[in-house]
Amino acid sequence: xxxxxxxxxxxxxxxxxxxxxxxxxxxxxxxxxxxxxxxxxxxxxxxxxxxxxxxxxxxxxxxxxxxxxxxxxxxxxxxxxxxxxxxxxxxxxxxxxxxxxxxxxxxxxxxxxxxxxxxxxxxxxxxxxxxxxxxxxxx
Length: 139
Ligand SMILES: Cc1cc2nc3c(=O)[nH]c(=O)nc-3n(C[C@H](O)[C@H](O)[C@H](O)COP(=O)(O)OP(=O)(O)OC[C@H]3O[C@@H](n4cnc5c(N)ncnc54)[C@H](O)[C@@H]3O)c2cc1C
Prior knowledge:
globular, alpha/beta, oxidoreductase activity, NADP, binds flavin-adenine dinucleotide, 7 helices, NADPH:adrenodoxin oxidoreductase-like 1
């Protein structure tokens, strides 16, 4: 794959070192950092004492539409950001912002590098459907 920027090179290095050195530990990758992504991360970290979660987000900052969509006059909805921040502070969690999966890194690269890849949010679902369609035409 042609790497278009330094960020991509850094991420690919992260994929290689992170997974190869701790192959016995479940390595899970979540694409998308909205509520669906964070609740998934929370459950994985809670239900498995050793699992490590890397979260990829195409925007530079996390929380998806809770940050950009939900209006400030709905503070009770935005409150979930506090819980997400606690999850993000855990040692076994890494946030990788500014990475567009499907463009900077391919879905196939993620599948090779992680035990499980979770795509969340509608845009990510589209990515998964595109991957499946591509895979189908290859056979
Ligand atoms: C204008 C607006 C107002 C809203 N107001 C309310 C409200 O008042 N109350 C309420 O309960 N809900 C509200 N919602 C709905 C709420 O924001 C969503 O239900 C919720 O954010 C969905 O969470 P999600 O994790 O599924 O998706 P998202 O929050 O959309 O998160 C998905 C994340 O995935 C990232 N992503 C997508 N594709 C890629 C890729 N290829 N590579 C890397 N990252 C990727 C996106 O950048 C995004 O950060 C509102 C939504 C909008 C649009």
